[in-house]
Design brief:
three-stranded antiparallel sheet; 2 domains; Alpha-Beta Plaits; elongated; alpha+beta; binds copper (II) ion; 136 residues
């Protein structure tokens, strides 16, 4: 008799633990519901810009622009596509705007959208990074 009672008690205890565990799982599901809101908040403080880079020539240009821009305050990420001659830039609009991004690229010696490269910076680029007509 006693053994049977103990068995039933243990069984009830296990069931109770099971219910509590299920309750815990439901709480995890609840906390997942707040994730989309967090993602929305994250994307709202980051903007994406596509900047035309008509004068880039090679992989060195890619490195120069990516590394140079990465040091600028407010720039989150930079990806230069040499084939497309396009820069894909994520930035914090509270810290920097598109005009300032263009100016930073221009200062590195490259045309950015309609803004021409800084002549001094351009003249200091390696030969392979200059326009074909300027290469020796
Ligand atoms: Cu180059």
């Amino acid at each position: 008799m006693n053994t049977k009672r103990t068995f039933i008690f243990v069984l009830l205890a296990l069931l109770t633990i099971g219910v509590v565990a299920c309750g815990g799982k439901e709480k995890t599901t609840d906390s997942k519901k707040s994730q989309p809101q967090m993602m929305a908040a994250h994307s709202s403080d980051q903007s994406h810009a596509m900047v035309k880079l008509p004068t880039v020539q090679c992989g060195m240009c890619e490195d120069t622009i990516e590394n140079g821009l990465a040091k600028v305050n407010g720039i989150v990420s930079v990806d230069v596509d040499i084939e497309e001659k396009m820069g894909h830039i994520n930035y914090d609009p509270a810290k920097i705007d598109l005009a300032s991004i263009e100016n930073a690229i221009v200062a590195l010696g490259y045309q950015a959208n309609e803004t021409a490269a800084n002549p001094g910076a351009y003249s200091e680029l390696p030969n392979c990074c200059k326009l074909p007509e300027d290469q020796n």
